[in-house]
Amino acid sequence: MKKQLLTSLLCLMLSLGFAQTDRYLLTGTVKEAKSGLPLPGAIVSPEDLSSGTVADENGNFRLRLKPGTHNISASYLGFERTVMEITLTSDTEISFSLTELDMNLSEVEIMATGYQEIPKERATGSFVHLDNELVNRRISTNILDRLEDVTPGLIFNRTGPANDPISIRGRSTIFANTQPLIIIDNFPYDGPLENINPNDVETITVLRDAAAASIWGARAGNGVIVITTKRGKADAPSLSINSNINIFQTPDLFYQPVMSIDDFIGMEELLFERNFYNAQINNINRPALSPAVEALLSARNGLISQEELQRQLNTFRSRDVRHDFTRHFYRPAINQQHNINLSGGTGNYRYAISAGLDRNLENVVGNDNSRYTLSIKNNWNLLSDKLEIGTGVYLTRWNRDTRTEIPRNIFPYETFTDNDGNALPVTRDYSRRFIESTAGLGLLDWNYYPLKEIGAGNIENIENDVRLNLNLGYKIVDGLKAGIFYQYWTNVNNTENLQGLDLYSTRDLINRFAQENPDGTLSFPVPRNSILDIQNTRAFSHSLRGQISYNKVISPVSSIDAVAGWELKDFQSISREFRYYGYRENIGISQPVDLISSFRQFHNGFQATIFDGTRHRGLTDRFLSHYFNAAYTYKNRYNVSLSARRDASNLFGVDANQRAVPLWSAGLGWVISEESFLNADYLPFLKLRATYGENGNVDKSVSALTTATYFTNSAFLLAGGELAAQISSPENRLLRWERIKILNFGLDFETKNSRIRGTVETYIKNGVDLIGDSPFSPSTGFFRARVNSASTRATGMDMDIQSRNLTGRFKWTSNLMFSTIKEEVTDYFFRGTPINYLAQPQGQLFPLEGRPLFAIYSLPWAGLNPDTGNPVGILDGELSENYAAIFTNTSPEDLTFHGPRRPQAFGAFRNTFQYKGFTLSANISFRARYYYRRESVLYTTVLRGQGGHADFANRWQQPGDEAFTQVPSMPASVNNVRDNFYRYSEVLVERGDHIRLQDIRFSYDLSTVESRRLPFKRAEIYTYINNLGIIWKKSDDPIDPDFRQMLPPRSIAMGINLNF
Amino acid sequence: MQTNKTNILIVTIISICLMACQDFLDSKPRLDLEVPESLDELLALLSAEQRMNQGALIDIIASDDFYHTREFIESQDNPLYFNAYKRLLTPDMYADAIQPEWTTLYTQIYTANFCLQQLELTTRTAENGSDWDFVKGFALFTRAYAYSELLKVFAAKPSPQTESQISIPLVLKADINTIEEFAPLGKVYSQIFMDLEEATPLLPDTPGIRTRGSKSAVHALAARVYLSMNEFTKALKHIDESLKIDNTLMDFNTLNPALNFPIGLGSPEYVYYKFSGTYSQLNSNPEARIDTLLYQSYEENDLRKTVYFFINPAGNINFKGQFTGRSNYFTGLSVSESLLIKAECEARLGNMETAFETLNTLLESRYMSGTFEPFDPSDFEDPLGFILWERRKELLFRGLRWSDLKRYLGDREEFFPLKRVLDNQIIEMERSPEAFVFPIPQEEFTNR
């Protein structure tokens, strides 16, 4: 197929070669008279309307005209129309300077959809445009971070599953893809977004409604983020350098309130008295016991005296392992970013070259990563301007080194060093008694020394990402243009994890498989050398698009723009994993091991086989689409837009005719301020917009046929190594695409002199045919299955207002973004038990009809029993301590519904002050009308000697305590239902509303300095401080409502930006 | 000229499109995803050991093979576990959890049904004949075994009185949209025997791997089920068929009792491999204690005393006689069970000599070499009682006790009443067949 494709392409190229002309080229720019800034989107045409064009993003236009005299007019909304008479005898260049009609509108914004670029004045859909200044305001390695708190309607989620970090106008799906589609330079980007260097990005456009996004059809359901990279301009070479360093605070391990060491050891003593540890002390698995319990055991067995026991316990009480972690494992993270950009061009040729280096030291000692990026972009206008050729080459390489892993499950009063700073072993997987009993048997050192693990790992990840773009555009006749766009992308990711004998985990594995020979010696089925894990993933995609566009200027104030095209996408990835045992890195030799036989584990005698470590995975994602989009502008004041797209994909097992989904949208725009009846001086621009349409979404994990996933039985099984399969989904003939219907209204306005301008939009989003769980009788073989059965509804408002408060020498600008959203799941069939809705377990979703997908529910709370400190609930209207009955007699609808876990209102308020070269801007963000559940002490963990929350110290201990505490008393024995009742009672539910000072940016522009001694056109030095902290919050809870485990680290960046 | 070029362009684009459309969208989205159709793919479904060879465990928790202290059981937070332990078989005993046995076993039935359906779409030819037969026989055997496990847990002991009682849904098709009604108990039993009968000629005498069905396994299962119905003649007939094929015993003298699990995975006594799930409260937990009297009933030269048990440092007796090499219990079919079925049936049918001969064959492999003195029925006042006690001693933690207790009810009083002692509190189980029926989980009713 590829061969045929190439032949066709070649034919096409040849057919274009015949282009000839008897016309001259008129080029030029349209500029604002006062400021000299370009006016993209201005209409330029001869008076006879024989042809016409629209100025590009740099205000440039090109026209081909017959020789002779023409009256050329340039017009633009809010500017006086200018006519110029020219006589063409050769290719000519002219320049228009349009004078403002005393309305002082702000500069023009161009909205990119990835298919077209539309001036805001002609758009009907919902677009958010982030200009280069806004993109560069924040300092980050990742481009996506730069959208936070500057994009109305877009929120960075801080609760809910990890697979939806951002949402645009809520979440209109349950199990399908949740993330917006990311477009980079006309095509969806298949790689990880951290491969994009933010310095290469010119602008970002976020598409929020159906009219804006429906051109992306079946993948547009979650909104679209269009990233446009920097292009060269046809003028003198310009060089810019941007360099910054960003320093982050060391993580605060004391942030989470936990039980004091005193209480912890006190509990261990109590539990030891109660013989709680007997099951573990005598367990053949040799489970780890804390140092205090071991000491208590030694004392009980008469191995140490009572005085010695007390001495040891007192030593433990004086320690806190978090100090050791902070001292040895953590450091301030430091990110450096350097970038150099060169662009320029002459008449028919433009180029942009950029090279970047990011070097990041992570906050864990020994771990760092570096990113290298290189991009080269070229554009040619050939064949007397009929043919446009664009090429782009983008290379990214990551080197990530992980040498240290943070130790997990360490007892809180361990210490990593002795008084002289020597590394000490700590308890980890096995009891000290067992570890000590193995000394001298010929095993490798089975002790775990956290300090010796620092830097002992060697995980090296190298990622290479290549993107190649080729665009061909050919003007067939005036206004009619054919284009072919092609992108090849590939990403190769290699990880080598060399686990030497320095690592405890390697020694542990070798020891566990050690076999005792009849003569008492040991043999080692896992060789006593390093283990090498290799993982490689190769992914690639081809995207090809053929498109015909038609732009016709019908009158100086009316035009038609249309595109139609066909698109093909083929994404494939294959990933393989291997493991080598007995690897000697100095000679590059590994040893075969017996993966078939089962060996008795040294510590507990269980039979197990050596882990194979081989795995293969493959994905294929294919789309075949047709699209059409047309916009008509009449009298510069009426816009009509229409869009349709049909997507077909390789949905598994779906009949060919059901693989495709037709999606469409329609929009209207009305510039009211152009009407004579609204000739208001104070409101020079007012526009009303309305759109409706459908976007799509797909969940490729479900299938229409009964499908099975294949694997080989684990080697430790009787049928180990045999091919096996299990049914992953039952037959579902009615499988179809998810659809999201969006109705959007928008109002754009601008007051005189652009003092206040803004946009207000409201919308309704209905998700239909969503994939949802439906319950089944388990006797059918499934207790639930995924079918197109759910629907959702979201309504909301997004507002974006800019006000120029002071415009003199001291400038003050305010930007307010404010969004509200109300979401609910309107149809859902699977019903869980109350505990499912209360607990919302990780990795599972339990929506309830009529409620938001992420909601907080609770049980009524009637305080503590004054005699016992037991929590009291309500059962059938009566006070009750029968917790099990409270749970069984409550239906999901009876639970108290507080509200959503995600904010229903959010936004940011940014103020920018300018004086001479100084600019100070501060962003204050806010989130409101949502709830969270505060953590508190759970006696289930306390009574198992695993510690717990610091609320333990505030628990009810004697009658009267109920006056000042709501923390229940400690029960005599583990009582999970009682714990759950307290944990999910209303007393722990809090409002999350808060305001935080997100960041401050301060910069100084050297180019305004009068002396011209400096060798550059523009120079800016800046500093950026992020995550400053909460200014106000509704709840008294001292922990940040959004960051319960760890605060985002404060950071301070300093940088310089030079333009030559 | 202009139109010509436009035409070329359009023709090119359309031709690319048409070329591409052909089978471009037929490729599957994931490498490991496939509609199982071929015989080896169907065999793969039946071979997923972790899923298809897992049997019930809840009946072991409720049986009398071990006990906990009050202290321990009260520190547990899994309602399913402590209710099953206390034998409080009420409809809310599973609390909010999905009942694992019910779901697992019906998933096995679904898979077997799916294979049988797919086989109907595959033509049996001379070439694939033996494979085709094997997959069909294996699927039928799998379905029959799963139903026998379901009945063990969720149904009363079969008898003329209970035969027409409504028991569990009898699902014979893999169709998620059809919900089968609850069938009379007798009908489910007939289905088990029909499936086994149909499977017999299709299966080989022994399978390559003991996770798969065989003639020997079919007969052993049939015998086990007939025994649970007190149909001794039929049970004897089938167990003799199985013993003709599988009769190898493991000499316990070759085992090393010092190991944590002296009997490893792959015992030669397996007829069909099935294992139970695990609970941390039970499997390899030193607090799952064995009754001292039971332990003391093993003679000093009985190797099972050291192979099956050990005394932990706290002085309590723990079990380590899993036939799996890990903490999961072996609950499948084995030669030792076959010999005990034969011994009991012979005894119950009055052939006491043959019964003891069979029993002695088994016990000889369990005793220290050269020390075993064969038992004789004349030594005992109640020779059947001795056989049953030996059955108890051999088949500990093998998932057989619950159905044995069901059939001993009203027959062998020595095993009753069943008690759980929690310090001063003693929970005594009601002595009625209905008391042994685990409730059908709520989710089966709410979603019908």
TrEMBL record, chain A:
Ranges of residues in domain TonB-dependent receptor plug: 120-224
Topology of the protein relative to the lipid bilayer: Multi-pass membrane protein
Keyword line: Cell outer membrane, Membrane, Receptor, Signal, Transmembrane, Transmembrane beta strand, Transport
Compartments in which it is found: Cell outer membrane
Residues in the signal sequence: 1-19
Tree of life domain: Bacteria
GO CC term (a single one): cell outer membrane
Major location category of this protein: membrane
Protease found in the keyword field: no
Keyword Membrane listed: yes
Entry-linked NCBIfam families: OMP_RagA_SusC (TIGR04056), SusC_RagA_signa (TIGR04057)
Family: Belongs to the TonB-dependent receptor family.
UniProt protein name: Outer membrane receptor for ferrienterochelin and colicins
Organism annotation: Cecembia lonarensis (strain CCUG 58316 / KCTC 22772 / LW9)
TrEMBL record, chain B:
GO CC, any one term: cell outer membrane
Keyword Cell membrane: no
Domain of life: Bacteria
Keyword set, alphabetical order: Cell outer membrane, Membrane, Signal
Domain RagB/SusD: 328-420
Residue span(s) of domain SusD-like N-terminal: 23-227
Compartment(s): Cell outer membrane
Annotated coiled-coil segments of the chain: none
Membership in a protein family: Belongs to the SusD family.
Protein name per its UniProtKB record: SusD family protein
